[in-house]
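URGENT: need a sanity check before tomorrow's submission.

F., can you look over the WDR90 protein record below? I want to be sure the sequence and structure line up before it goes out.
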Amino acid sequence: DARLKGTVYRIRGSVPTSNYLQLPRTGTQSLGLTGRYLYLLFRPMSRKHFVVHLDVATEENQVVRISFSTLFKEFKSTATWLQFPFLCGAAEGSALDGAARRGEECACRRYSHLKSVKLCSNLLVKNLCTSDLVFDPGVTFSEARQADLACCGVAPMPREMAFPVPKGEKWHDLYDYIRFPSEGCKLPYDSIQKSCLGPAAVSEDPIRQLPQPVTLTKAVRDRLSLIHQITSPKAVSTLWRR
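Structure tokens as predicted:
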């Protein structure tokens, strides 16, 4: 891709189960990635659905599949599979009941490592990685050093994961940064979608961009605790637009 100045993998086909890129290639191998956060740089193809499967191993050596897709209409779960809808538009809230009850089967299991990733049509993928750091794509390396964000576990996006930003433009005007779970005002934990607050612009003090504590009801706190257990490490996706 000339604009991104790097290799982009195009995965397309009418049947997602038959058109995919799997890492590693065989089920007997394992990525063995232990980072708390997963970063995926991708762009859905226009007017087409896509599916992403993340197979994570628990400390009990059981594999749980976490999937997100534009094909899913609602959150569903079994003892070994969690399915999250992916909504490309801005968040408009989500159902705050039912998902916690349906996810109780997986709540008692603790994450060990990421075993494999399966990227199914239709999407373009630039890169993916795991890390214990929170990467903020809107912060430059010089801004991060100035604000000493490393002490807070926050870092600018690594160069091999970064998207180009022309001089005079802002990262968040060109790309979408979607975090899950979100810090959005309606906490859409049963779906993956852009925060209703929208991306924050980088100010003179980047450390002020960090999530601020909020007061939650007991029901939301219980739900958040459950979803964090189920989905740790958190899947963090970054989209680029045309």
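My own read: The first helix runs from residue 99 to 102. The two ends are 12 Å apart (CA to CA). If you see anything odd, call me.
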